[in-house]
Specification:
The complex is a heterodimer of chains A (759) and B (325). By secondary structure, chain A is of the alpha/beta class. In chain A, 29% of the residues lie in helices and 22% in strands. Chain A has 5 domains: 83 residues, Alpha-Beta Plaits, CATH 3.30.70; 85 residues, DHBP synthase (Alpha-Beta Complex); 190 residues, Alpha-Beta Complex (DHBP synthase), CATH 3.90.870; 164 residues, Nucleotidyltransferase, domain 5 (2-Layer Sandwich); 177 residues, ATPase, nucleotide binding domain (Nucleotidyltransferase, domain 5, 2-Layer Sandwich), CATH 3.30.420.40. Chain A has 23 helices and 33 strands. In chain A, strand 24, helix 13 and strand 25 form a beta-alpha-beta unit. Chain B has 2 domains: 145 residues, 2-Layer Sandwich (60s Ribosomal Protein L30, Chain: A), CATH 3.30.1330.10; 153 residues, PurM-like C-terminal domain (Phosphoribosyl-aminoimidazole Synthetase, Chain A, domain 2). Chain B has a 7-stranded mixed β-sheet. In chain B, strands 1-6-4-5 form a 4-stranded mixed β-sheet. Chain B has a two-stranded antiparallel sheet with strand order 2-3. In chain B, helix 1 runs parallel beside helix 4, helix 3 packs parallel to helix 4 and helix 5 packs across helix 8. The chains are: A alpha/beta (759), B alpha+beta (325). Chains A and B meet through strand 26 and helix 17 of A and helix 8 and strand 13 of B. Bound molecules: fe (iii) ion (FE), magnesium ion and zinc ion (2 copies). The site of magnesium ion has 4 residues of chain B, from helix 3. Chain B: Belongs to the HypE family.
């Protein structure tokens, strides 16, 4: 007999077919493998055919992921050989892989004197290198990437066409003969830029050596990575970092650092096992870890560093010359997207950098570094970008009592009848356009769900254009046109405004419900959950600003069962930076007396300001009243300070939920926490600990009153201490977003998930 | 002494109010002839406008509601390149207003009229029961002869230069500061602008459009212009004059200085060739006058930050809804 398989998942452009080919050869099977728009099609005949799937699963290439396998038994055709059939029609590749850090094999080759790619700064293979950032159009072929202009040399072509080579169909493969070139740009005394010519034979390494020298000298350089440029300087050189801060007008917000290797990170930070796992994972994200050695100017005042390892050949070559950590922060002007090409860099950041290490492989789609953080034995994603995104999930549908539901099956569909596919195809194409901050977009079509990389805050025209460009890119790359657009209810979100201008059917989903939906989607949850959604601000159904919410939510609807008592957001949006008046206005009179803005705050509290239940602002107020901050200099500052001063030895807390009474109130009154912070102003440890304990206990106490599993979502849960304290104290089953951003980066996911489940 | 309902009754008290207060302060033959309507002489094109004024508090740093009522109407006329000449004035007074306060308002109006070279030629007074209005509402209408025709919000062309006559946001900030009882030294910009306009006209500046940036502030003017002329306007944040006090208070109140009302500040778009000359003239009246940007052809009103990022300047929103999560 002949067995036909249809396999879906991440199976294209990741070396899947060569693996199939190798296994078929080993098992002496005949037949073929083919990429089609429906997935990878395999037919096999031969004695060992029953061993095939098992062997394949055990030998998957590192970037591949099987989501579904469909199987059909057919009549024998008596194939005489096993071959890879080149796709005839253009394949609409639906699995564009994220960019992946250089793999161990390529690293070994790069540092092997006898290898023809010895010290080659653009070495890559089917298991590593650029993908999303170089693709212009589908299908994912070299001609549709920014590698098109580099014509493969004979040797590379040979590897590229040999199914047994690890560069078989590695689209960006190249070598010294045929690949991109590094170049160094240098700012002269008079401010004009000059391309540095190094004519002798050792050009490659000389350029990197030169940049390393400049970093050692304390200069600020820009280095082109996968999805954009980094601004780089010696992280251990206080003056250099200070100068970078001055030039970039970024006074205090922490910088991320890249380290030569894990051992070097350990010299400066305390790592948990989970931290190490995340840092060394193939995605090489920025990981927020515990600071041990204080490097001035990097992350002053807080107890954490954002650290990551080299992920491109160029980074590795650079660290051949230096062993200290470097600041590596996205090259952009405040609130604008990351810069992709050196002309733009010179135009916009010409005053910031002294040298540029550029190359002529164009970045087509910008992509920032990802940011994650370990929480107990899990982790949370704060920015889903390089290495993780585009994030693809397979969604399967079935009819269940006439209602749409979703199955998210991994690797277990074995079926012969295709009747369900007609249902799939009638499904709407859905576009979720996300929030205004940490914006991402999500798509759903057929059985696919795609989350874009982090786009950013839509505060500037540049970032709004980047948002629109990303929508266009995704429409092109996935051959997608939306039938419906799902957006937030906030009338002033740029994403909402964009959606309302399109001539499409629109649905608006409440912000915090979208956070809850994002969690349900990640874990494929059905039924009712008790969702605690704590974040900065979001537009509520009643036109006020929500942010400290407890919902009973399911895939279709939600009910707001509790919320933090609303208060006036004195100063509107500016209260985020300046919480002083808002905080003091809420204090009891006798406690307020010690604050010099007491009278002003009381007067302002009579004004007309929006009402909010924002948990983020409660954190700000506590940090202000305790004396930890005067102003919130950057997003997340107050939360990180409260975490820094948290002392697990202090068990004291203030009960907000009052579960011992005859039932909890709908409104959770937290003002006592503010009075406590003000009364104990100066005792940071006490205030922080009591505050975190109280919020954690409040969550635990409320959840005990409901016979439901719990969802935690929203940006406030980036607070690792709060999240851990809840996990430690609760006996409930608790879900929170892990691979999907727990902050507003997940809003588009919740929007699209609602569409999948309800339209 | 307080104003009672009797002052509006048409009897002896009304007469006293009219003769001893209004005629005395606004004294001119047309008004004093006390006919049913004022008869005035006009030549050629005439600008004609009306506006009603309410403000709380009625006295503020740098002015009061009377000054506002004269400046507002005179400025609307001046913005059309016309010299304010004849004004009518209606008072709606809440019973209980101190006579002394009314007198001070009227005196301020008279002083302001003199600066503008305009006259009140007709008027009306009503006194209404407590609670019907907030202390005092004033309506003024005015007419003036157009000295320089062709000034219009529809006239902007790519390359024209936009100038603001002084630092922005003062009036709105002062009023809010009073409401919240915040002590401040800054004064409202409230002022009749005819002198500035006349000087620009006399200097032969090619004025395309002019508008006083009252309600809705600079943001509203720029958006209205872009809309009316089908152009874009790009403003440089660095060049935008705003006093530190205004910036500081705006942060407390949650306002954008660009959205706040001014009562003696105007925006003028001139041909590029005259831009520096116009700026120089305006600087003589107020040293903070500044070229702030230029007209573009992309139909957007844009603010460029010192480090190059751009934001849309939108029409001021009714609510201060934060978008920060
Ligand atoms: Fe949110
Ligand atoms: Mg007016
Ligand atoms: Zn590799
Ligand atoms: Zn080659």
């Amino acid at each position: 007999m002949r067995i036909k398989y249809k396999i879906n998942g991440i199976v294209q452009g990741v070396g899947f077919r060569p693996t199939v080919y190798k296994i078929a050869k080993e098992l002496d099977l005949k037949g073929y493998v083919l990429n089609s728009s429906d997935g990878v099609i395999i037919e096999i005949e031969g004695e060992n055919q029953n061993k095939f799937i098992e062997t394949l699963k055990n030998n998957l290439p590192p970037l591949a992921r099987i989501d579904t396998i469909e199987k059909e038994i057919l009549e024998r055709k008596n194939y005489t050989d096993f071959e890879i059939i080149e796709s005839k029609q253009t394949t609409k590749t639906t699995s564009i892989s994220p960019d992946i850090a250089i793999c161990d094999e390529c690293l070994k080759e790069m540092f092997d004197k006898n290898n023809r790619r010895y010290l080659f700064p653009f070495i890559n293979c089917t298991n590593c290198g650029p993908r999303y950032t170089i693709i212009k159009d589908i299908p994912y072929d070299r001609k549709n990437t920014s590698m098109a202009k580099f014509k493969m040399c004979e040797k590379c072509y040979e590897e590229y066409t040999n199914p047994l080579d690890r560069r078989y169909h590695a689209e960006p493969t190249c070598c010294f003969e045929c690949g991109p070139e590094l170049n160094v740009k240098w700012k002269m005394e008079n401010g004009t830029w000059k391309e540095l010519r190094i004519e002798n034979g050792e050009w490659r390494i000389k350029k990197i050596e030169l940049i390393a020298e400049k970093i050692k000298e304390g200069k600020i350089v820009a280095i082109k990575g996968l999805g954009g440029f980094h601004l780089v300087c010696n992280a251990t050189n206080e003056e250099a970092v200070k100068e970078l801060r001055r030039r970039k007008q970024r006074p205090t917000k922490p910088f991320a650092m890249m380290f030569k290797d894990l051992d070097t990170i350990k010299e400066y930070c305390d790592l948990s096992a989970k931290d190490t796992e995340l840092i060394t994972s193939k995605e090489k994200p920025i990981v927020l870890v515990k600071k041990r050695v204080d490097l001035p100017q990097i992350a002053d005042g807080i107890d954490r560093y954002g650290v990551f390892l080299p992920y491109t050949p160029v980074h590795y070559l650079l660290f051949e010359y230096i062993d200290f950590p470097i600041v590596a922060t996205s090259a952009n002007i405040s609130d604008e997207p990351i810069i992709r090409d050196s002309n733009e860099l010179v135009e916009k950041l010409g005053n910031v950098v002294d040298y540029i290490l550029d190359n002529d492989r164009d970045i087509i789609n910008a992509c920032d570094d990802s940011v994650v953080q370990a929480v107990e034995f899990e982790y949370i994603t704060m920015r889903c970008a390089r290495g993780y995104a585009p994030l693809m999930k397979n969604v399967k549908f079935k009819m269940d009592n006439g209602k749409w539901t979703m199955e998210n099956e991994k690797d277990k569909i074995d079926r012969n009848n295709n009747s369900q596919f007609s249902i799939l195809n009638s499904q709407l194409n859905i576009l979720g356009v996300g929030a205004n901050q940490k914006n991402t977009i999500s798509l759903s079509f057929k059985d696919k769900f795609i989350l874009s990389p982090h786009i950013g805050d839509l505060g500037t025209i540049g970032s709004i254009e980047y948002f629109e460009r990303t929508i266009d890119t995704f429409r092109r790359l996935y051959d997608f046109e939306e039938d419906v657009i799902i957006c937030d209810k906030h009338p002033y979100y740029e994403s909402t405004k964009w959606a309302l201008k399109q001539n499409k059917k629109i649905y608006q989903i409440q912000h915090h419900y979208a956070h809850a939906l994002a969690t349900m989607f990640e874990y494929d949850l059905e039924g009712d959950y008790l969702a605690f959604i704590f974040d900065g601000t979001g537009y509520g159904d009643d036109g006020t600003i929500w942010g400290g919410e407890v919902f009973i939510a399911n895939r279709h609807t939600y009910e707001r069962v509790h919320y933090f008592k609303q208060f006036k957001l004195i100063g509107g949006e500016k209260a985020v930076k300046n919480p002083a008046n808002m905080a003091v206005a809420l204090l009891d009179d006798e406690i307020a007396e010690k604050f010099k803005n007491r009278k002003l705050a009381k007067n302002l509290s009579k004004g007309s300001f929006p009402l909010t239940s924002s948990m983020g602002r409660i954190f700000d107020m506590v940090a202000y009243l305790a004396g930890m901050i005067e102003r919130n200099e950057w997003e997340g500052m107050s939360g990180l300070l409260i975490e820094k001063y948290y002392n697990p030895e202090i068990a004291e807390y203030i009960s907000l939920a009052d579960s011992r009474g005859c039932g909890v109130k709908k409104e959770i009154d937290f003002v006592e926490l503010l009075n406590f912070a003000a009364k104990n102003r100066g005792d940071f440890e006490l205030v922080s600990s009591v505050f975190i304990n109280s919020i954690a206990n409040c969550v635990v106490e409320i959840s005990e009153m409901y016979d439901l599993d719990v969802i935690l979502g929203g940006g406030v849960f980036q607070n690792k201490t709060l999240l851990s304290e809840i996990l430690k104290r609760s006996n409930k089953k608790i879900y929170f977003n892990k691979t999907i951003p727990i902050n507003d980066g997940g809003i588009s996911v919740g929007q699209t998930a609602w569409g999948i489940w309800n339209l | 002494m307080k104003i009672t309902l009797a002052y509006g009754g048409g009897g002896e008290e009304t007469n006293k109010l009219i003769h001893d207060l209004f005629y005395k302060n606004f004294s001119n033959p047309v008004l004093e002839s006390a006919e049913d309507a004022a008869v005035v002489e006009m030549n050629g094109k005439t600008a004609f406008t009306t506006d009603s004024f309410t403000v709380s508090p009625i006295f503020f740093n740098g002015g009061n509601i009377g000054k506002l009522a004269i400046a507002g109407t005179c400025n609307d006329i001046a913005m059309m390149g016309a010299k304010p000449e004849y004004i009518t004035c209606g008072f709606m007074i809440e019973e209980g207003l101190e006579f002394g306060e009314l007198e001070e308002i009227v005196k301020t109006m008279a002083k302001e009229l003199e600066k503008a070279g305009a006259k009140i030629v007709a008027g009306d007074t009503k006194v209404v029961p407590a609670g019907s209005v907030d202390k005092i509402f004033i309506n003024t209408s005015g007419i003036g002869t157009v000295i320089k025709p062709g000034i219009s919000a529809h006239n902007l062309k790519k390359g024209d230069v936009v100038i603001v006559s002084r630092d922005i946001g003062r009036h709105g900030t002062v009023v809010m500061a009073h409401r919240y009882e915040v002590e401040t030294d800054i004064e409202s910009d409230c002022k009749v602008l005819w002198e500035e306009v006349e000087t620009l006209i006399n200097a032969g500046i090619d004025i395309k459009a002019m508008r006083d940036a009252t309600r809705g502030g600079l943001s509203a003017v720029l958006n209205e212009w872009a809309d009316a002329s089908g152009v874009g306007i790009e403003i440089s944040e660095e060049k935008l004059p705003i006093s530190d006090e205004v910036i500081g208070l705006c942060e407390i109140f949650g306002f954008e200085p660009m959205d706040l009302a001014n009562e003696g500040t105007f925006v003028v778009a001139v041909d590029a060739k005259d831009a520096e000359k116009a700026e120089e003239i305006l600087k003589k009246f107020n040293s903070s006058a500044s070229i702030i940007g230029e007209v573009t052809d992309d139909r957007k009103v844009v603010l460029t930050s010192p480090w190059g990022s751009k934001r849309y300047i939108e029409l001021p929103k009714g609510e201060l809804l934060p978008r920060i999560c």
